[in-house]
Design a protein that fits this description.
Layout (H helix, E strand, L loop, with lengths): L3 E2 L2 H23 L4 E7 L3 H16 L3 E7 L5 H13 L5 E4 L9 H6 L12 H8 L8 H14 L6 E5 L6 H10 L3 E5 L6 H6 L3 E4 L17 E4 L3 E4 L13 E4 L4 H7 L2 E2 L6 H20 L11
Parallel strand pairs: 1-11, 2-3, 2-4, 5-6, 5-7, 7-8, 8-11
Antiparallel strand pairs: 9-10
Helix pairs in contact: 1-10, 2-10, 6-7, 6-10
The protein binds NADPH dihydro-nicotinamide-adenine-dinucleotide phosphate and 5,10-Methenyltetrahydrofolate.
């Protein structure tokens, strides 16, 4: 038996077309164009790809994209000045500061300098608190994308056993909050968890956000379980022909060993084409939501949790 593929790429395309419709409506009825500012400090190649894709899709859905690329040696004070300008710029409805930041910066301080209403990543302490207490917040894009895929697959998540592997502030913890909000019984596993394989085997929903290529094997998965693979890992692919310059090509893999997992799971997200595209689509959706809230307009339905 082979698992059903949860096609994040297709789902994200549908979500983007809903975003486009709302953006057209905002323009026609109110003369407002939502705007998203992305700040990239330094030159991480993976971040470059993400930021480029995001800027392209922002423009494709009819929104304004503002890109700010700063050198790695930028001072924290200068970054805070830029954030302050974006906070007060009425054309900017969403602000994303790409993580990780260079080591000389305090990421918490930088994130908490973003106006919470414009924090489309949902990382500001105010949004984290709102999410944790079940109040209206900006919801982090990656966990939101995972939740949308799960709701689409199951209908109701109520009473299901969910195991989230990973406890980061950007994926694991907010994912656990969202699953709890949908009445799952949630366990969070991490690098100190004892008996992690057996714990994973107890999950109806297994979310992997670890950053370790193909760590979770098929025999860690309960037969028929739903597996959400958040991991994005680039590994060497010696099976591919060498590049012209003689270097080894690479490929993307998740935190789940897809080939063994697909035999056991009931449903699984692929990498690429699973959670990644949903993250960007949810970022666009959050920007439209932020724009509507900023202008006192009714929120679009179906774009948020
Ligand atoms: N698809 C997408 O849109 C996105 C994908 N990602 C990807 O998701 C993955 C996770 O990202 P992120 O949350 O930022 O990563 P972090 O490195 O911040 O967190 C990783 C978590 O995994 C835990 N962990 C590490 N090793 C083990 C282990 N051997 N067993 C159990 N738990 C372990 C860590 O535990 P501890 O806390 O104990 O150290 C930690 O909580 C990465 O592959 C990243 O590239 C991230 C963001 C968006
Ligand atoms: N402030 C901040 N917010 C983030 O949301 C954030 C961040 N910083 N830093 C880095 C991580 C990572 N991340 C990804 C988003 C999309 C894909 C994505 O679209 N992946 C494609 C493949 C892309 C490729 O081919 O490289 C896929 O999975 O199909 C991947 C990774 C967001 N992150």
């Amino acid at each position: 038996m082979s698992a059903t593929l949860l096609d994040g790429k297709a789902f994200a395309a549908t979500l983007r077309s809903k975003v486009s419709e709302h953006v057209s409506g905002l323009k026609e009825t109110h003369g407002i164009t939502p705007g998203l500012a992305v700040v990239l400090v330094g030159e991480d190649p993976a971040s470059e790809v993400y930021v480029r894709n995001k800027a392209r899709q922002t423009v494709e859905t009819g929104m304004q994209s503002f890109e700010h690329r700063l050198p790695a040696e930028t001072s924290e004070a200068d970054l805070l000045v830029l954030i302050d300008q974006l906070n007060t710029d009425p054309a900017v409805h969403g602000i994303l500061v790409q993580l990780p930041l260079p080591g000389h910066m305090n990421a918490d301080l930088v994130i908490n300098a973003i106006e919470p209403a414009k924090d489309v990543d949902g990382f500001h302490i105010s949004n984290v608190g709102l999410l944790g207490t079940g109040q209206k917040a900006m919801v982090p894009c990656t966990p939101l994308g995972c939740l949308m895929l799960l709701r689409d697959h199951f209908g109701s998540l109520s009473g299901l056993n969910a195991v989230v592997v990973g406890r980061s502030n950007i994926v694991g913890k907010p994912m656990a909050q969202l699953l709890l909000g949908d009445s799952c019984t949630v366990t969070i596993a991490h690098s100190r968890t004892k008996g992690i394989e057996a714990l994973c085997r107890s999950a109806d929903i297994l979310v992997a956000a670890v950053g370790r290529p193909e760590m979770i094997k098929g025999d860690w998965i309960k037969s028929g379980a739903t597996v959400i693979d958040v991991g994005i890992n680039r590994i060497d692919a010696p099976e591919k022909a060498l590049r012209e310059d003689g270097t080894v090509k690479t490929r993307l893999v998740g935190d789940v060993d897809f080939d063994s997992a697909v035999q056991i799971a009931g449903a699984i997200t692929p990498v690429p084409g699973g959670v990644g595209p949903m993250t960007i689509a949810c970022l666009l959706a959050n920007t439209v939501t932020a724009c509507c809230r900023a202008n006192g307009l009714p929120e679009p339905q179906g774009l948020t949790a």
